[in-house]
Each structure stands twice: as C-alpha cells, then as structure tokens.
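#struct-help
A.M.: can someone run this one for me? Single chain, 945 residues.
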Amino acid sequence: MRTRTLARGTPLRAAVLAAAALFFLLLGSRQVAWATPEAAITYAVSQSPAAGAVVQVGDTVTFTVDVTDAPGGFTGPLHFIVKKPANMAFASYGTQAGNILTACADNAPGFGYVDCTVGAGGTIVAGALLTGPNEIVLNFTVAQSAAGTSPSDAAIRASFTDTLAGFTNAGDASDPATGTDLLDPSVGGFTVAGGNPGGNIALATAASPGAVYEGALTTVTVTFTTALPPVGPLLQPLSASVTNADVQGGTVVCPGGGAGTVVSGAARCAGVTVENGSTMSFSLRARDTAAGDDAVILVTAPSLGLTEAVAGAAPLGTAQQLLTIHEVGLETVTLPSPFTAAAPPWVVGQVLTVCTANVGGDAPGDAAAGGAQGSGVAGTSTLTPVAPLALADFKVQGPSGTVAATYLDGSSANCGAGQSGVSFTAAAAGSYTVTAYYNGDLTSVITNQATRGANTLTLGVENSNPVPSASLLVPATQVEGSGAFVLTVNGASFVPGAVVRWNGADRSTTYVGPTQLTANISGADVATAGSRSVTVFNPGPGGGVSAPLTFTVSTAPNPVPAITSIAPNSANAGEPGFTLSVNGSNFLPSSVVRWNGTDRSTTYLSSSQLTIALLASDIATAGTAYVSVHTPAPGGGTSPSAQFTINAGSAPRPSITTLSPTTATAGGADFTLTVTGANFNASSKVFWNGFQKSTTFVGATSLTATITAADIATAGPASVTVVTPAPGGGASDPVSFAVDNPAPTLTALDPSAKAVGASSFTLTVTGTGFVEGSVVRWNGSDRTTTYGSSTQLTAAIPVDDLAAAGTASVAVHNPSPGGGTSASLSFSVGGGGGTVSDQLVFAEEAAAVVPRSRLTFEATSGTLAPGTLSFVVKRDDGTFWNGATLSWQAERYENAATATGDSWSYAVTGPARRLFVDTHIEVEVRALKDGTTYRSAAWTPLHIR
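D.P.: on it. Structure tokens below:
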C-alpha cells in the first residue's frame, strides 16, 4: 500500500542577520481566507525609545505594530512569526485590540522566534480593525552581547516584513513577487552603552595625595577610557558623591575642560561629551570625624551604564576610590623613655604624659585612633605646617576646667623626633581630656569654610585603695546542713565597698569599719562538708584581694525521720489523684516518702514537711495503704508507717458531652476516639454498639478508645456509651456516631463504546469508594449492578440503550448515609460519533484497488498530534474487522495504529489476509486527543483483490 505525507502550512522564510544590524522578521503562517482587497489592511510600526537613543544592557526595547482595516468584513485571523536577534531576549507582549484576542508565544514555532496571532480566538468580527489602535506590543531585553558597538553602527535595528498576499502598509503599494513586504522603513537602530567594568567605558579614579590628615586638601581625577568615538552629550550627568569629605566649590572641571557644579555635596558634570582620555577633576577637604574615618568617592554615569549599584560594586580605583584620612594620634607614655605606653588606672596625684604618636586603633582611656604627626599637619595659629605642634595647639580639660600643662617638644628626652605633647598633674578624681587641634584655626573655619582637624584623648582618674588583709573568721567552722548564718571577718585596710568572697564568689557584705566586715552565708554554702576559702576584695583604683583564710564545714550524721500526720489520711476508691502532705520532723532534702514500701518522687518543703503526688490508680481499690519516710546514710533510717484508708466509695454515673471525631467513612482504617464528659474514673470503659473497646483513662473528663476498621466497615449510626463499674457508676446516655458511605469516583469504563444496535452487554466500571448498594447509572437511570469490590462494579446494559448513536453519560451512585454520585464518563454509541477533523487523512485514494499481499493501512494526523490513532474497517456486509481476534464481527471495532511522526499505520499479515479476498471495504480514521475523539471527514472505499 502506498504511503502519502501531507504537508500543512508554509515553511518559515530564513532571516539574514548582518554583522552590525540585527533584524526582526515577521514571517507569515499558513495563508488564511479574507474578504478584503489588496491594500485594505495597513500597518504602522513604532519603537520605544526612539531611533538613535542610547540604551543599556538590561533595558527594555519595545516595538509596536498597529494594524488597521478599511471598511469591510475581514475574517482573519492574522498570523505573524517574529524572528528574535541573538542579542535580544523576548520579555513580554501586550495588546490593545478591543474585542480581538491577540496572543504571542516565545520560541514558537521554534527556538529564536516569537509567534503572534491577531484574532487567536477565531474569526475577527467585521469592522473590528476599523479603528485603532489595534496593536501588537513586543518587549525585548537588551542582552550583554549587544554591548560594545560603536555609536556609528546600528547596534539594534528592527525591520518588519510580511509574506501574506493581500496585505500592505502605509509605505508601499503592493507586495513584491517574492512575498516579502517591508512595512516601515522609519524603524531605526539604537546605540548600546556597555556597563562598567566589562563594557565599552572604563574608569580610573585617583586622589593626589591619596592620604591626608583631617582638614587637608586633595585633588581627585577621574579618567575615562573607551574604544568608541566621542559619546555625548550624555543624557544623564556624571556625578561624584563623597563621604567624610567636602567637594570644594569652583574646583570641578568636566570632560572637555568645562566647569562643573556642586549639587547636594556631589561634583556634577551635565550635558558633556566623553571620549577616550576624557577627565573629570575636583578638590576635596577632609572632614573632622570621631576616629579619622576614611572618605569614599563614588563616580556614577548612568548614561554610560555606570549606575549607582554598578559603581558601588566596582573595584577600588575604578568607579570608586578610598581616600585615607588620618588623625593626629595621641598616646599616654612614660618618660624619660618615649613611646613606652603607660596604662591605667590613673590615680590622683599622678603626672600624666600625652604625646602625638602613630596610634593603630582605639584603646579606651589610653589612645585615640590616628597616625603620627606628619607633613600634612598644620598648626592652629596658621595654615603653615608646624612640626611638631606647638603648646597652643593642645588643650587640657579636667573636672574643674582648664588644666595647666607643660609642653613636651620633639627631643629624645620628651616625645621624640617629629612629635610633641604635654604633661600635667591630676589633682582630683574625675575625667581629663587632652585635645590636639591642627590644619586651620577658628578664623579660617568661619571665613574660608575650612574644616579644622581635632583629636581628643579621655583619661579617667580615681582615688587609690589599699590591698586588704584578713586575719580572723568568727565562726571558723559549721556543721553541714546547719543553715544560713552571719560570718564576721577581722583584718586591716578594709574600705567602703569591700566584699567578702566565699570560694571566690561575692557574698552580701556589710562594712563595719577598716578592721571588720560581716557577710551573709546561705544554708547552701554549708550544705555539704568540706573546706571553704574566704577572702576580702577592695575595689579599684588600687585595691586587690587579701590572702585566703580557711572555713571548715564538718560532717553530721543524718537524723532518723518521724511522721506526725498525713493529709489527707483517707480517700474514696475511684477518686482522681491528688497531692499527699507528710508532716513530721528530721526531714532532709534527700528524704523519700514510701507508699506501701515503694519510693515515690518526693518534694522537700522543709525539715517538717514532704509531699508526693498520688495517682488515681493508687486509690482505685478499697483497703489500707502504708506511708513512711526514709532518709539515706550516713545515719538516717526509716520512720514508722502511717496508715492511709481507701474507702469503698460509690462512683457517680458518667456522662458524655462530645465525641472527637464525630463521623468516619465506612471502610476506613483504625482511629482513636476521644470521649469528653464528666465523672470518669480509672475503671470507666468506652462501649461501641454495646461492645467494650480498649480504653485509656486521661482524666475525670476525658477517655480515649481504639475504634477498629471492623467497627466502621458498614455505614450507619453507631452508639457510644461510657460504663463505670459498681459501686455506683453505671452507663452513660448513648451518643450517636455517624459512619458514612464514601463518595464514589469513576476512572474507567470497559468497554467505552459500542456500535448502534449492538446486543446487550456487561459494562465493567472501575473507580474508588464503591460499596454494597452502589448503582451504575446510564444517562441518569439505574442499571442492574453487581458489587465486585471497592474499586470495581459490573452493570447489565440492555439493547435498548444502544438503539441510537450518540454519547451516553455513565456515573456511580452510593446510597446514604454519606455517599453521593460520581462525576460521569462518556460512553460512545456509534456509528460516527466524534468530531470531524480534516487533519486525519487516509493515505489511499478512494475506490483504489489494493492487493491483499500489501494490506497495510496508513494515515497522517497533520498538526492534530493525537495520543492514539486507529482504523475502523467495515466490510460491505456491514461487519467490522477485529484485528485482535482476526475475524469479522457485528460490532464496530477500532484497530490501533503505530505512530511514526505524524504518520500512522496498521498492517494485516499472514493467513488473516485471506479473509479480505475480493472484498469491498470502507475505512474510517479515528484519533483521541485530550479526551476528545476525532474522526476523518469521510469513509474511504477500497477494493481488496
């Protein structure tokens, strides 16, 4: 049998991508019918931003195609395929087309294309394109590969074409013979500015000098390097922002030599042109900060791709520059050996010496962050550098105001070469500050807006305390477990604030005088035998810890405990648990209460009282229990027992208030039922339909019981009660628990189709949630049903149900309680059911004569792309070929085909071909896709020789 391939649609025309020009190509799809003449439909293409604009990597470029129709009834739809260039990524599409549905899909029909359809929902209503705008809006993102082109090139250029005869635009008269039609020659190119670094503009930022002291000046130069011709004027200004320094007005020089401005503290150049070697420069004065904080210079050029985020991430020396700012360091030293650091505590009467020095970091009370006095430092009296600073450049303040200071020059006996400082006497306790001023004076600050540098060192001076000594403890020994007491410590050089330390830990201390202290020692401090270390600590400045004295805690035997009473001393059997108090004497933290000779978890309250927790199970049975107290060795022992009486009480009748859960599904698994109510005890049991269940006593108001799968195997109400045994007790009123049938689901029918007029048959229904009593419904009417299992039913379908062609609705209904009706599945009664599709084409010509030696049926499915395809072969006597049984049968049968691409085939081989000798047959092609059955437009008649 011959094989035929059916081609559908017009192939895409190849797009040419020039080296410097990237093109969008609108390519036509399969030609559609229309009712408008040539030039009736026009197009206009616009772009945003406009041609010639500078765009950045990551920017969005938008092309808009506006479609307009002359009066008339266009039937559409219009179909476009847009080719994407390599340096653009499709981002999104938008439409404004009134009642016309427009859709665009990325990478369709293949990679590198965008498929757009105007009128995607079907035909276009007459006149819908008459008034604009009826737009296709395409948004593309500029990729990194677009960067680095010269401004003279068209970095991104779009040209639109169509291949549909009968379409034109505002710029031409008719379509060329090739089918290509340039729509709008006004669509132009863009220049892409690369990012920094890695783009087509690079920066180098430098400061001279690169490190200054507070208040000093430096000059910053930014150099631009580019392989492009001059770019400008820039759409957005160049800007250099600075922290911890101030741009000096009148010093900003822009590329090309023009003067810039200072805006919000930043140097700015607007409307300038940048070319290779262009520079931008300005002067900075370092600010006075608390710790000589460095300055950061950040250069941004948004029009060149150098946004604040990109500049902030750039390496130092490119878009950003770190300017080191020093303070004049101050350090306390010991003379006559300079630069030997002196450390606190500082005390009254001490001579303090402070020199300028190369200080690496903050050390509170000792040094301030900064550097050594250098050539960039000028005195406060003039702006002329002075090395070292003079006495007038220092200021010393104490608790009572200005403190007289002695100047120390740069000699080797003082602060050392190139340095200077002061010394002074701390006459009283308090805070002292030494401040060095440099690079300016008050006059220059006011008149010249200069920033004066300053650094301050703070020193705390205190009175000095002596080291104490301890000589005698009263008492010096104590028996373990004897409890808290007051310890007296005698000695010398005690000061207010002195603290007694017990094994190194501070104790609450009372200052009696310079020779005596008292301290509160807790019972825990002497709870166990052993030696303790006792010292006295005087706080600073000075002060210290005395030599230790030894305190001895001796061992004492444990006393024998005794019980005087227990409370309560009786309870009724079946009552809930409670706390039992045991009263007596000689109880210790290690003492344990015994209930009927068994140790119980015990709480120690005092030497005369212990408590234990009794459970409901301890008093469940009437009788007498015995309570005793045991204290372990050394010493100790067990007390005589006290009797506890358990009376045979009468339990109250239980009651149920709620069940949780209140319903279950028939056929479900085991679950735990929580019963909430009142008057439950440890003997109470849950009953289910009169049968006792495994019950757990939670409390007087709660029980839990295990309900098995067998208990809920069948739908219907269940009765739940709680029974408490005598004495008293009884059964609660019953509470109903609902066991509901599940809702059925339907997954498959076997068979799912029959021919019109076929005989009655048995339908097998597969699904879930089937129960005894489930019924199969045919078009809403019950059919005689047999229960197989929870997943399968069978139903007798009479011949009357197959009398006419069509689709029957099959569902399953579960009876109440619960239950319900499943979603339905379709059963096909045919001839001819299904949707006609011209995509299904039988490969053989009608009325062809086919030899039985090549009995192979072939068809193509075009663009339908079904999941399955089959052939229905009908003989002229009305019977159908069944390839599974190799026989002709009265009922319609679909012979499954095998796919090769969009081609499908089914072969009759071997002895079976004899059954086709000299027969006239008709062939129908059927396919299934997404639950819908499709069939060929007609039966194809064949003669088999």
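A.M.: thanks! The CA atoms of residues 197 and 314 lie 7 Å apart.
D.P.: also worth noting: The mean pLDDT is 81.
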